[in-house]
Design a protein that fits this description.
Structural class: alpha+beta
Mean pLDDT: 84
CATH architecture of the largest domain: 2-Layer Sandwich
Number of helices: 11
Strand content: 15-25%
Shape: elongated
Low-confidence stretches: none
Largest sheet: 7 strands, mixed
Order of helices and strands: HHHHHEEHEHEEHEEEHEHH
Number of domains: 2
Strand order of the largest sheet: 1-4-5-9-8-7-6
Distance between the termini: 90 Å
């Protein structure tokens, strides 16, 4: 028993001395496993207690417990010391000089297209319109057929569409929202909404993009006339481009409106006198419009004998280009900060 006790005390004292020399928490843990772990030196000695007599075991057990307590207490104290030193070093390394000037943080802002969309929305909300939305992945029925564009209609060739299946495509216009809105609200009157959104066509040049944005407008009620459409669009044009603006409606053709009209606004650069921007005409085309075709009203669930309506659609990029004097649409999609910071 005497030899076993001496060995326990020797191992314990050596561990205590080595403990004070360690300066890393990892080494501290390794020493603890080396002495008190399942295969540690002190643990190995404890297995020899089975060879002691019943009278010697309690005495030796007391020696072992006292040494274990000393070691564990020493480990806790040394671990606390090392943690305090590490914390002090970290705080010193992370110290902030509060006398230094602050770093400049660049403020972000809305993209010019977002600015224009929000301005359009604000103008029409002020005229009593509500905002409607629809899916960008659309069925052929809502994108074409319900808008008086059957499968054999030649006007389909004007839009090079992105088809997913024979009956599903990326919408080429926000006009499908007209039908979805009328189906949802029928027979409620009036229907008075705008539908801003993203649309897709296979175009890519200075004035076209394969992905662009439109705002569709629709009003359906009893007694709606072409003059109501002109008044709404004149109000919009003056709020968007200036109070001195005038508009004109030129006869045109759209399958979903009859009669149809292209809408021009007097040139905001020359005031109608003629310049490079308006190509000497004094007018700039901004959108298409017309009275909702009776078949479209029927598709939406309304009786064209009882109600009439008007619709219009504008390209947000075109409005933005005219408003900000941008000549190449691709600048709006390049994400060049030198360009975007101007807005």
């Amino acid at each position: 028993m005497v030899d076993l006790k001496k060995e326990i005390l020797r191992i314990g004292e050596e561990a205590l001395r080595e403990l004070q020399q360690l300066d890393k928490s990892e080494a501290l843990q390794e020493l603890k496993v080396k002495v008190l772990g399942k295969k540690g030196t002190l643990t190995a000695l404890l297995r020899q207690m089975g060879s002691l007599s019943p009278e010697e075991r309690p005495i030796m057990g007391q020696v072992v417990n006292e040494m274990r307590s000393r070691l564990e207490k020493a480990w806790d104290e040394r671990s606390g010391e090392l943690e305090a030193v590490a914390l002090e070093k970290r705080l010193a390394a992370e110290r902030i000089d509060i006398s230094l000037p602050g770093s400049h943080v660049t403020r972000g802002h809305y993209h010019p297209l977002t600015q224009v969309v929000e301005e359009i929305e604000d103008i029409f909300l002020g005229m009593g319109f509500q905002i409607a939305e629809g899916p960008e992945i659309e069925s052929d029925y809502y994108n074409f057929e319900a808008l008086n564009l059957p499968k054999d209609h030649p006007a389909r060739e004007m839009q090079d569409s992105f088809y997913i299946t024979e009956e599903i495509l990326l919408r080429t216009q926000t006009s499908p929202v007209q039908i979805r809105t009328m189906e949802k609200l029928r027979p409620h009157l009036p229907v008075k909404v705008i539908a801003p959104g993203t649309v897709y066509r296979n175009d890519d040049d200075a004035t076209h993009s394969p992905m662009f944005h439109q705002v569709e407008g629709l009003m359906v009620d009893r007694g709606i006339r072409m003059s109501d459409l002109k008044g709404i669009l004149l109000n919009f044009s003056r709020q968007m481009f200036g109070e001195s603006r005038e508009i004109r409606l030129r006869p045109s053709f759209f399958p979903f409106t009859e009669p149809s009209a292209e809408v021009d606004v007097s040139c905001m650069l020359c005031g109608g006198a003629g310049c490079r921007l308006c190509k000497g005409t004094g007018w700039i085309e901004i959108l298409g419009s017309g009275m909702v075709h009776p078949k479209v009203l029927e598709m939406g669930g309304y009786n064209p004998k009882d109600v009439t309506g008007f619709a219009f659609g504008m390209g947000v990029e075109r409005i933005a280009m005219l408003k900000f004097g941008i000549e190449d649409m691709r600048l709006l999609f390049d994400n060049d900060l030198r360009f975007l910071q101007q807005f």
